[in-house]
Amino acid sequence: MLVLFALLLCAPGAPAFAASRAPSHGSRVMTVTAALQRLERSGEIAHATYLQYQRAFAAAKGSRARLSGTRREQLGAVLANVEAMAAKGQLIVSRLPVVFTTMERNRQFWTTQSLPGADQRVSFTGSRLVWEYYPGQGIEIQWLGTFGEANGYYLSHQTTALREVLDEAIALATRRAGGIAWEYLFEFDGGVPPWSSGLSQGTALQALSRAYSRTHEAQYLDAAKEALGLFKARPSLGVLVRTRAGSHYLEYTYAPSERILNGFIQSLIGLYEYAKLSGDPEGQALFEAGDAEARAEAPHYDTGAWSMYDQHSESDLSYHELLAEFLEHLCEKTNAGEPLTTVHAPIPGDAIYCTTAKRFREDVQTAPAIALLTQSLRTSRRAGVQLKLSKVATVSMSISLGGRTVWTNSATVEGGRPRLLWVTPSKPGTYTVTLKARDLAGNEAGSSGTIVISKSAAAKRSAIQLTRAWRSQPNLDPHRLP
Q: pTM of the predicted model, to two decimals?
């Protein structure tokens, strides 16, 4: 179960990170110091709090100046993100704790610790928060990992650890979308800080609701209720997208057109847990709206041989298995038809989640289907050999003539009708093509076929012109080149 929450908040092929920069329009921009002074003057923070944050900022800048190489770059990126948020007027009171905790942890880490590997998880003595190294952005709180740890503590009955990690998390929540949210403070896949996620927020709902059921301490239920705000607000503040069927809850607040199914399904699991354990009609209404949309969406993410990660690309193996697990959880809940509250009717039983999850599990055991589509090509071309492939796989292609291999190529391609490069030979003939496909789960399949290579139109024209020249000059030396 713990593995379920170990995924990274990244889509396949996500671009490299780059530090945020404060806007420069030739006019005066708000600095971090000025932003803190404004909050002090307005009475939103005390003078002692202003001094605390200002000294921490000055200390981080001083440390950056003394560092070099990767350490200077990473701490500098974190400071640049803080400065960019200040310039945009985003250093609000409720955001200060998480912003300055992130900055101070980075100063501590880059001045005392050895260099981490990319995507390495990091922890600090006396804290249960999960941090992660994002090259180019420093170390950042991994909220999905943090709330995943909380769920793990719940399942293993480590109630003290559960309290500790959630108490830390609640203290670092930001006022957002009429409630609270756990924000990411780094650039990611086109999003700039601060942004949030329906996936991590749904996991937070699940952990907080479970903590309340275990401890009966009101602060956990109160925090969960306030966390509903993200699901009631549209992007870029929230994750709500209204649909004909109900509501879709986004993976990222900054990507309103991206529909990532695993994050949506996990957000529904969190809403279900909250609604069931709290009896809150608002939570149930949010779940029911999302449930109606998810039932409509889920079948469209099944290619018949694998799952789609979003509207455009297939899942990698970990996301495929994760999605199957999430769907199984919803299958158990909705198929049972359990009433969430005494006010609403029971949830109608549904086979879509169950059937889709079962198909995805079977996909992991099923070999890919592959076939050759291209039948003919011209000589001396950088041609694409088109294949028919049932799901994402690594495909190897070997081409031979008369038992001698003349070309090999391999690539990992998605299902459909992909093409593999072949620089065709100058010699016409019938070439044998051997194909092998290995899917992400290690299943293998193969097929073969032939491609007829004929002379290109230009070569044919040259041959015709040469023949005509010979015919017009019968005494021409046949061994002499024109």
A: 0.87
